[in-house]
């Protein structure tokens, strides 16, 4: 989906559902993120069976950052304690969901939900999440998500 199409969809949702749109987008993202973990887990399990026999390697949040970058949602960088997931920082440069938006107050609820869904499913634990979107030069948006375990 192009950033223009997403922007139109988002504006439509906000005009219909007002502040409820944020909750809908957040829930959509959460659901998408956790399903991504399930499908990638299944894919890796099959691959691991072929490559390493029974010793399956664990999924890493960086697998998702590569995947999300490849889908064209933005350039994703992940840092923090990825081993235990006690604290994770996600940064998305040129976020496609915020591109061309002047109003960054709305934040980035869909990608926030995706991050939350991935972290919750991957570490099988509940997380707090804080998000901030920064409008940088030439209207390039950087969305940042700070996750910490509850
Ligand atoms: Zn964004």
Give a written overview of the molecule:
The protein is an alpha+beta fold and 150 residues long. The protein has one domain: 2-Layer Sandwich (Muramoyl-pentapeptide Carboxypeptidase, domain 2). Helix content is 49%, strand content 21%. The chain contains four helices and four strands. Helix 2 crosses helix 4. The longest helix has 33 residues. The protein is globular. About 4% of the residues have low confidence. Bound molecules: zinc ion.
Rg estimate, integer Å: 16 Å
CATH topology, anyone?
Answer: Muramoyl-pentapeptide Carboxypeptidase, domain 2
Q: What do the pLDDT scores average to? A: 83
Determine the fraction of residues in helical runs and give it as a percent range: 40-55%
The SSE string, one letter per element, is: HHHEEHEE
């Amino acid at each position: 989906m192009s950033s223009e199409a997403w922007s139109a969809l988002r504006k439509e949702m906000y005009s219909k559902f007002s502040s409820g749109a944020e909750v809908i987008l957040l829930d959509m993202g959460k659901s998408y993120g956790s399903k991504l973990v399930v499908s990638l887990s299944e894919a890796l399990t099959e691959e691991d069976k072929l490559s390493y026999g029974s010793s399956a390697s664990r999924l890493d949040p960086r697998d998702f950052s590569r995947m999300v970058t490849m889908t064209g949602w933005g350039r994703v960088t992940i840092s923090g304690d990825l081993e235990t997931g006690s604290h994770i920082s996600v940064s998305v440069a040129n976020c496609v969901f915020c591109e061309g938006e002047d109003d960054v107050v709305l934040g980035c609820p869909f990608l926030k939900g995706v991050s939350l869904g991935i972290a919750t499913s991957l570490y099988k634990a509940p997380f707090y999440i804080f998000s901030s979107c920064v409008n940088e030069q030439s209207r390039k948006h950087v969305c940042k998500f700070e996750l910490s375990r509850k």
